[in-house]
Write a structure and sequence with these properties.
The protein is of the alpha+beta class and 389 residues long. The protein folds into two domains: 5-72 and 95-176 and 268-346, 3-Layer(bba) Sandwich (FAD/NAD(P)-binding domain); 180-267 and 351-385, 2-Layer Sandwich (D-Amino Acid Oxidase, Chain A, domain 2), CATH 3.30.9. Helices cover 38% and strands 30% of the residues. It has twelve helices and 19 strands. Strands 1, 2, 8, 9, 10, 11, 17 and 18 form an eight-stranded mixed β-sheet that branches. An eight-stranded mixed β-sheet has the order 6-5-13-14-15-12-16-19. It has a three-stranded antiparallel β-sheet with strand order 3-7-4. β9 and β10 form a beta hairpin. Bound molecules: arabino-flavin-adenine dinucleotide and P-hydroxybenzoic acid (PHB). P-hydroxybenzoic acid binds at residues 45-47, 198, 211, 219, 292-293, 295.
Length: 389
Amino acid sequence: MRVQVVIIGAGPSGLLLAHLLRRSGVETAVLERRQRGHVLARIRAGVLEWGTVETLREAGLGARMEREGHVHEGTYFSARNRGFRIPLAVLAGRPVMVYGQTEVTKDLYVAHDDAGTLIVDGAEGVTIHEAGGAAPFVTYVKDGVGRRIDADFVVGCDGFHGVSRRTIPATVLKEYERVYPFGWLGVLSESKPVSGELIYAQHERGFALCSMRNEGLSRYYVQVPAGEEPEAWPDARFWSELRRRIPAEAAEALETGRVIEKSVAPLRSYVAEPMRWGRLFLVGDAAHIVPPTGAKGLNLAVSDVRYLHEALAAFYRDRDETGIEGYSARALARIWKAVRFSWSLTTMLHRFPEQTAFDLRMQEAELDWLEGSEAAQRALAENYVGLPY
Ligand code: FAS
Ligand code: PHB
């Protein structure tokens, strides 16, 4: 079989890239290791930058998001159980949208089903061949049968643990990483969100975040030591710890509910350069990971997709290779700024094991300054709603 672009991974990166390329008349095939149910069961991101919202709208994927998403004009921060609001839209000129990544992925699958895109679920042993040459191909096994797809280009949308980044020779790939000594224990509960907007809480016991999916579905996180297992956190322990870390009035108003998902996400900052090697491109988590503190992971995947779609569409339309040649540098310029923001917010809001009393005071002073300075709030808001593409 032959297509123009083979995409590895049917997460948001792979599905959105395939959707945009199809609309530009580029023929794709998507190879996904898991079954669709598994992909859709993952609870991931919750906040969309406004650029992501516009990208989805322009791609004809915005209908349900408009109906069911929630536009947030601001967000709360707190220290020592006392909160303050940052008016994002007033300071940065744009709001954000709360609409879960799971919903975005569902909307993408509906669009692909309607269009008849070739998405192979259960594609095992995906292997990339000749990516450094002019005639790459991919092999995999489906239902016990070995298969091959030849293509002009291969795009790795296969996440942090995928196969594509590992295809780039170690002599070519340069990696940058910081692993944080803590993770996020997240719960999804059938309960009314404690606040109409998100609350990012710094506390000497550790970070906490109050988010939501809709009026009856809340998403909460507490910082836990690295390697912690969800089983160590019965619901009662989680609710009690969350209450101790968030603003007093929120702790008072908190409604608990049936917990329908509980998981621990490790936190790391990671960037691989370059994001192109011959006929192979890396997109999204395959190339970079950010701690979810700044809500950037999914949104960076979207900007990578926009850049690569533009580049490949120009190649097939005009045989113009400018975009392809410039993809990695252009994507990395935006990625590194978001990596900085996510690292900075994580450093300000989390407790680090070796921290001293002085370090804690520095964090509290930074939040006090943020509360009192419009300039500081504007800088945060500009990054949070999303830097320009
Ligand atoms: P994804 O990892 O979503 O998708 C990659 C796909 O490739 C998967 O479906 C995988 O099955 C498939 N794949 C992997 N290897 C393969 C192979 N060899 N062959 C074929 N297919 C293969 N971001 C936020 O902004 N906020 C959050 O709260 C947040 N929480 C997160 C929690 C967790 C546990 C994780 C892991 C990430 C979280 N993220 C969060 C980041 C997340 O949203 C990612 O940025 C987003 O999923 C990136 O999308 P993709 O690049 O498509 O990668
Ligand atoms: C979420 O709702 O899952 C969420 C929101 C904001 C973040 C991280 C996660 O920064």
